Amino acid sequence: MKSVKQFFGFLLVLVIVAGAYIAYKIYIPYNIGTEIRSVTINENDSFPVVLKNLNQAGILKSDYIFKIMAIFSGVDKKLSPGRYDFVGRISLYDVLRKLKNKDIATLMVTIPEGLSVYKIAGLVAARLDIDSAEFVARAFDTAFAENQYNIGGFEGYLFPETYRLWYGIKTDQIFDILLTEFRHKSSGLFDSLQDSHYSARELLVLASIIEAEARADDEKPLISSVYHNRLKRKMKLQADPTVIYALGGLDRPLLYKDLEVDSPYNTYKHEGLPPGPINSPGLASIKAAINPAETNYLYFVADGNGRHIFSRTLVEHNRAKRKIKLDLKMSGQ
User: What is the secondary structure of 118-171 as a DSSP string?
Assistant: First the structure.
C-alpha cells in the first residue's frame, strides 16, 4: 500500500514538474533580439510551412510545444495571410496570440488627390511588396473592371485618402478597398443627374481635369464653369493636363509642339471630354464638376502664384496673359 502511495506521489510530482516546465516554455518570454523578425503567411500556406518559416526566422524556441498549442487552439486551421512581425522579448503564447488575432503588420498609406494610376502604382510599390507594372496592367484591365465593378477601368476611381494597408496585400485587394471608399464618399452625389447632359462617368472625367488644374478648392467651381461653358458651345477644352496625360507625364513645361500629340486625350485637337479620367480627383473636384459656378467665363490662366485669372473673351484672356508675364518679369521670376 505504501509503495502504491509513493508511486502516485511520484507521478503527481512528475505531472506538476512537467506542467510547470510546459507552462514555463509557453508563457515565459525569451529574447529574439532588437531587430524585427518577420514571417509572411501567403494565401494557401499550410501550417507545416508556417511552422518551418517561424523556426527559420528564429522566432520559436520550442516548435514541438508550439505545434501542440496551435492544434489544440485551432490556429493551425485558421491562418490569415499577411506579414507578422516579432521583436524583443516574446513567448510562445505571444506568437500564438498574434496568429490567432490575425495581428498582421500594417502601415498607413496616403493616396494624394490628383494622382494617376501610374503614380499610385509607384507609390504603393514603394511602400508595399507590389509590382507596379502588374498594378498598372490590372488597373487598365477593362474586362476585370467591368465584370467585378461595372466600370470601364480604375483610373479616376482610386479614391485619394489615407488607408491602413498590410504587407502581403494583393493588388486586387487594394483596388477593392480604394474603389469601395470612392463609392462610399461619392454616395448620393450623382443622384440628381436626371436632367444633366452628362453621365456620372463623364463628370468624373471632368472632375479629374479640374483636380489637375486647381490648387485652391474655392477656384474649382469657377474652373468647372469654364469647361461646362466651353462644352455647351462645342469649343475644345484645351486643357493642358489632358495633353500631359497623353504624353505619359512630363517633368518639364508643356511645349507648343506637345499640343500636336495624336491622342484622344489631346483636348486641343479633339472636341469634348477625353475618353476617361486622367487622375483620381478628390471630393471637392467631383462636387465642382457636378455643380459648377454660374459664370460666363470661357478662359482662365495661371497667375504664377497658385491662383488663376478668369476671362469671358479671348481679348480679355490675352490681356491677362500679358499682364501675368509682365508681373512675373518685374518680380524676377
Answer: HHHHHHHHHHSS--HHHHHHHHT-HHHHHHHHSSS-STTTS--SEEEEETT--H
Does position 8 have pLDDT exceeding 70, yes or no? Answer: no
Q: Which of 297, 322, 323 is nearest to 213 (CA)?
A: 297
Distance CA 318, CA 311 (A): 9
Helix/strand/coil for 16 = helix
Q: In the CATH scheme, what architecture does the domain 106-185 have?
A: 2-Layer Sandwich (3.30)
User: Which one-letter DSSP state was computed for residue 216?
Assistant: S
Architecture of the domain spanning 28-100: 2-Layer Sandwich (3.30)
Indicate the DSSP class of residue 42.
P
pLDDT at 18 over 60: no
Distance, in Å, from the CA atom of 93 to the CA atom of 99, rounded to the nearest integer, reads 10
CA distances from 21 to 18, 24, 28, 208, 276 (A): 5, 5, 10, 64, 66
Nearest to 298 by CA among 207, 218, 213, 231: 231
Q: Do domains 28-100 and 106-185 have the same CATH topology?
A: yes
The sign of the CA dihedral 150, 152, 158, 159 is: negative
Residue type, 55: N
For the four alpha carbons of 305, 245, 295 and 316, in that order, the dihedral sign comes to positive
Flag whether pLDDT at 310 surpasses 80: yes
Domain coordinates in residue numbering, the chain: 28-100, 106-185, 200-297
Q: How many residues does the chain have?
A: 333
Question: Which pLDDT does position 153 carry in this prediction?
Answer: 93
pLDDT in tens, 244-286: 999 999 888 889 999 999 999 999 999 999 999 999 999 999 9
List the one residue out of 327, 321, 292 whose CA is nearest residue 308: 321
